[in-house]
Write the structure tokens for this entry.
Amino acid sequence: MFRVAQPDADRRYLGAAIEGRRPMRPRSAPAMTVLVLGGTSEARTLAAQLDGRPGLRVVSSLAGRVSNPVLPAGEIRVGGFGGAAGLAAWARAEGVDAVVDATHPFAETISAHAVEACALAGVPLLRLARPGWSPRDGDDWHDAGSLDEAAAMLPRLGTRVFLTTGRQGLAAFAALDRLWFLIRCVDPPGGPMPASCEVLLARGPYERESERALMRGHGIDVLVTKNSGGPLTAGKLDAARDLGLPVVMVARPAAAAAAESVTAVSDALRWVESHMLASERAARPGG
Ligand code: NAP
């Protein structure tokens, strides 16, 4: 089943392309409903592996920020819930039995809301977050605690910056008018941003060789990235090492404390399966 439930504010981001793309599936009463908070490749992999399992209803939730998102398999809802209380109310209304927070490691607000909402609704929560990147031999990393800290470091590290931190938060770099930026993001940025720049709209994954060619071609002398982790965008780190370039690595925000957390999709899958077994047992007569 494919449904879109999104507030008007988010509707503009998604476009009609999503609606109606999936045929309706007949819905028999599921033994268990799982909400996957998504927007990552891990969330999509998990949804694909759970979708279609007998007795299981899987709903993936997207923020609706990207104009043409890669859609997960199965049922999807789009747009904010209206804070932690809204998420708790949604979970109760939809009979959610378990939540997997598989959002991006830098999406700290929704993760905090998931912790609060699941406590309010009495629903078990699992945090699925890929491990961060660690420096390797030959890397020249400069750790920053925030985008503002990253911006403050840049003038002593280079003059031609490859900025890959996404379209949100570009204001932190807007005052650096002596530096030139190659800004890569999925959708066009808005709001304050560096005056001297080129915007490259692209979506990963990115390979080491093409990243190296891109950096060479633009005369890049410093890379800025969030420590997102995962293999799909790690090519820029290999390329920076190959070219001997410094990397400003923005650390992850402090994670909201979900009681249970895993880093691999296979472990999240096992967690859902164990909850399915428990709810099947509970549904048996005398269970
Ligand atoms: P955020 O700051 O943590 O969340 C802001 C608000 O957006 C939340 O309070 C919530 O609104 C809504 N929201 C976020 N994720 C949602 C989801 N999966 N389903 C429904 N509502 C959601 O999030 P963000 O950093 O802007 O990221 C937005 C989405 O993009 C996330 O789902 C994340 O997985 C994905 N993403 C983020 C990054 C990044 O660098 N931050 C990178 C790649 C992908 P309400 O309070 O109204 O519920």
Observations:
- Residues 1-26 have pLDDT under 50 and may be disordered.
- The longest strand covers residues 56-62.
- The radius of gyration is 21 Å.
